[in-house]
Design goal:
Layout: E1 2-7, H1 21-38, H2 43-49, E2 51-62, E3 71-82, E4 85-94, E5 99-111, E6 116-117, H3 122-127, E7 150-151, E8 155-156, H4 170-178, E9 189-194, E10 203-210, E11 214-220, E12 226-233
Antiparallel strand pairs: 1-3, 2-5, 2-9, 3-4, 4-5, 5-6, 7-10, 8-10, 9-12, 10-11, 11-12
Helix pairs in contact: 1-4
Length: 234
């Protein structure tokens, strides 16, 4: 497993002094970026070949949120390729070995010129060395949206929501969804299903469904079709 060490920054914690869910997701996303860069398959390489890995789904499980200044180790390992689909696991631990959080993610490789799926080439297959699948309960990729959701005020995608691919960053959708969850809600599992890329100026129409145990937030286009569906469970 590829790993890097860090220390929880003050800018990464909430009012309770613990890392926020959004910061945890950012660590996992950064870890996959560092891994790709260190094996010669980084952002510049994919720009040269006009391809990009697009995230299709997250499942993040949290045992404990680390405290400010706590030392942590973040790791990732790919475990499967299926056609144009790639899967990778993540783990966050303390330096003593306590597992704080772990995750599964599903990615799709796309040709950015034709916007069609592409299969990994030999360099990718050699660089992304597959490892054993992480021992966790794997949830389905698709998230069911209850029919009784309440519509919230639409908002517009701003420039600070975007990443280097010029569409809304994966983590930004989670930040948007968290606005509709009570502050004291203890998130133990996050699932995200990415459906359509939102870009600068697009209108996001949130629909929020809630139970005692979970919130499902569908971040929709104006026509009601989702850009992204987020399930936040306690």
């Amino acid at each position: 497993m590829y790993t890097f060490e860090s220390r929880v920054r003050y800018s990464e914690v909430g009012e309770d002094g613990r890392m926020t869910l959004q910061s945890l997701l950012d660590y996992f996303q950064d870890c996959s970026t560092f891994h790709s860069e260190d094996i010669g398959l980084g952002v510049d390489y994919f720009k040269q070949i006009h391809q990009v890995w697009l995230l299709s789904a997250w499942q993040i499980c949290v045992n404990r949120y680390p405290n400010v200044c706590e030392k942590i180790v973040i790791g990732t390992a790919p475990y499967e390729f299926r056609g144009f689909v790639g899967c990778r696991n993540f783990e966050m631990k303390t330096t003593e070995g306590e597992v704080l959080a772990y995750a599964n993610s599903i990615w799709s490789l796309m040709d950015t010129n034709k916007m069609v799926p592409a299969k990994p080439n030999e360099k990718m297959l050699a660089g992304y060395v597959l490892e054993d699948k992480y021992p966790m309960d794997y949830a389905p990729r698709k998230i069911a949206v209850p029919a009784d959701g309440r519509r919230e005020e639409p908002f517009t995608v701003k420039s600070h929501h975007l990443d280097t691919n010029h569409h809304v960053n994966n983590g930004q959708y989670v930040r948007m969804a968290m606005d509709y969850v009570p502050e004291k809600f203890e998130v133990r599992q996050l699932r995200v299903e990415y459906k359509k890329q939102a870009v600068l100026g697009d209108e996001i129409n949130p629909v929020v469904c809630s139970t005692d145990e979970a919130y499902v937030i569908s971040l929709n286009k104006e026509d009601g079709k989702p850009y992204c569906i987020v399930e936040i469970a306690g």
